[in-house]
Amino acid sequence: MVNSSDTRDPRDLLPLTPAMFHVLVALVDEERHGYAIIKDVATRTSGEVKIATGTLYGIIKRLLAEGLAVESKRRPPADSDDDRRIYYRLTAFGKRVVAAETERLEAAVRSARATRTLRKALV
Amino acid sequence: MIDKVHPLRERILKWLLRVLPAEFRGDFAESIAADLKERSAENGGAEIWRREIPALAGLAFREHLNVLREDSRYALRLMARTPAFTALAVTMLALGTGANIAIFTVIDAVMLRSPFPQPEELAIVNVLDSNGRPTPRFSAEQYEALSAAPRTLAAVAALGGGSHLLTGTGEPRRPDLECVTASMFDVLGTRPLLGRVLGRDDDRPGAAPTIVLSFPFWQQLGRPTIGSVLRLNETAVAVIGVMPGDFEGPFSRNDTSGWLPLNVTLSGNGLTGCRASTGVNVFARVRHHLSLREAEASLPRTTLTSLTEQTFYGLRTPFLALVAAVACVLLIACLNVGGLQLERAVARRREVALRMALGASRGRILRQTLTEHLLMGVIAAAAGVIATVLTLRAIISLLPTNIPHVAQIGVNHRVLLAAVVVAGIAGLASSILPMLQSREVDPGRHLVDGSRTTTRRGNSTRRGLVVAQIALSIVVLVGAGLMIQTFLTLRPSEPGFNSRGKLVTLVRLPGQPPEASARFFEQLFDRVRGIPGVRSVSGTSYLPMMGVVSTIPIAIDNKSINAFGATITPEYLSQMEIRIVGGRAFTASDSENSTPVAIVNEFLAQQLRPGGNVLGLMVLAPGPRRPGERPIERLIVGVIANTRSSGADILPAKEFYIPYAQSPIPLLYLLADADDRIGTVSSEIGRAIRALDSKLVLEDIEPFSEMLDGRVARPRLGAWLLGIFAAIALLLSAVGLMTTMGWWVSQRLHELGIRVALGASRGQVTRMVLGQGVALVGGGIVIGCLAASGVTRYLQGWIYGVTPLDTATFVAAAFLMFVPACGAMCLPLWRAISVDPVVVLRAE
What we know:
The complex is a heterodimer of chains A (123) and B (844). Chain A is mainly alpha-helical and 123 residues long. In chain A, 53% of the residues lie in helices and 7% in strands. In chain B, strands 1, 2, 3, 4, 5, 6, 7, 8, 9, 10, 11, 12, 13 and 14 form a 14-stranded mixed β-sheet that branches. In chain B, strands 17, 18, 19, 20, 21, 22 and 23 form a 7-stranded mixed β-sheet that branches.
């Protein structure tokens, strides 16, 4: 449910799938349409993560259903707009979820780095 | 347009977008199309093929799965909300699916599986006789000629007869062995389970005797090792192989014990062993690239018949009839559930209208209805599979013992697959009407109007369903009636003799001269008479209705009449309670030294002296089962009533009896009238035979009535199964009629209330309701009778002693349908006549 005063605990939805995490990150700073999300994820990961269109819309459907994202009413200027496009933005709860997942991943990385062998390997 | 340059890629993408669930498509299809266009322009086609098309296909699959999951959950909630209705619908579908699954389980094992690779290449070979008629019997020379020129036949094999006695493994017994050429295993192509099959060196005259055992016989013998020795006809025979459990020889006879080389004769014990000289049956495998017809065209004076067709000769019609019957039962169940759901669909119109107003597409509503019915179909089919597993033993016990592959009957992956198909059919068929009904839902109207009234079309559809159910039930009932009549014809309750309480065993004294045989049987009968529980004993060389007869020529006044000939002991006629209509029975004084006498039945008497008296007549006849014996004059001293002679013929045969003492033979059926101690008596009889000759083969000692039952196993199967299916059809139709009439009454409560308020009497209301019900039942019966008259002719060949259009059967079926139908109308009628106009009108 989309609700600005969403009292759900974001940790209930963790861990996210890597693809879902990347999609959420792509929406953190900016409202984007589908293909823009795909491109942002590819750019952000230096082409390491390429999300297929079919995969993306499965994720978007879930984000909308879970109340992590909503369709945005704001549109770009008419000369650069394609009316078939739908723009999405994160809800406050969505932002909390992506923040919680980032923290979780950071903690996991910190814990991995703390091991002696990895510390040596990563020097 | 996604891609103008690559039409195939474009078509696939468009198609994938189209197969997405409607709601998902509505939300995202345009965005996806726009994204794909841009992606294609930026990254080229390879990316689309490699990444996008598989991802889109996966998305479509996952989304459909999600919808199915949601619909199933919703359907289960709905089903749980009305448990009584769900239980009724699932039970009805379970009866329909269960019957289908059970019959498929049998047909799958008996007819659809072949133990042979490429069974379509296998053929029975017939040779044309001098009159151009095909005969299966080949002489040794004809077989050699055929196998020497196998241009079109990949392999040819022969199968001959022979009798064998197995000793040294407990009681001596006669195993059912087939004498075959070594090439039989090449023709059939089945590999042995253990050891090896017969080779050409095993099948040369003078070769060391060898045997390949069938799996059941190998188990019966205590699983002897390969290389161990059996004693057959007093000869040591080495076990060289064991065939797998589903291999029953070329003709799929499930009682075959093993296979011996045709050309290695094991004579001993007075038995001949395998003999190729008396003629052989020939079968062959045609070359891969040839059809049977093509192969036949290149073989002179020879015809080929498919081995599979020959094996299942006479089984196809019964099984097709059973399949048709279970299909009818399933259809009745589906119509019934569909009819019940129509009523629910009317009641749920408002709910559907609400869902549509909230955005559910019509497609989604239809899909949800279909899912609900498919779920019910799956639950019903699961119940059907469980019921089949539980009743499998009973079903197998109903099957005739000579049906091939009976041991293979069981629930396997193919049966489960068939259950899935049946579940799908049941779900689909029962959902059609409710789906049509939900198409009529108009959110604008039905959200406001909450009434449960239905259209005239809905009413007539419901009535049409009941008529169809009754008509289908009549078809099954008529089929069952004809089968029951056939069964009663072949196994009459009054065959002219009494088979009850009698134990029978065949005693053979191979190689014994007549005098020794007479002495043996005299001593044997004395011993058996002394067994506690035995009331009387007799002997005969012919048992009525058992199909084993010896025909002898009776000569009188220069004409010769062929008749069934039998030698009997004096007690036989009285023990079998065969009525003497003239003269006398044989007595102890009819001995070998007295005047040769005979007894004839009424039918033969008529032939000998039409309209006259045959007592005192002299006829010239040889002794039965004494080949080469010169006929002698015999005085007819008695005439007995006609009895049923052969199992499959309702007309009596001509029967001619002579006293055993005047024509002793080394073979007699021993008949012992026993009291309740049948088990003890039969083992005592075995002991009496063994005491006189320990080397004699002990044949089965069985109650005569059970032997007669065994002869009519096929019609009994038909009578039982069709009877059960007819009862199910009747029950389902009665439920259908009851619910429809109940619905009709509930639709008209308002009208009935007004009629009663205006002074209509209970009698008038009763007439009105009954008029409706009787019209439905009558219509169904008439249509059913017409349909049955067109269908029952396909039962010809399986029914006996009754015509496919037997009036009595049709009338009985109509009556049987009418009675429960009247019962089914009682509840709705009661509701109609107890209508209180005040309550009804106030409710309105």
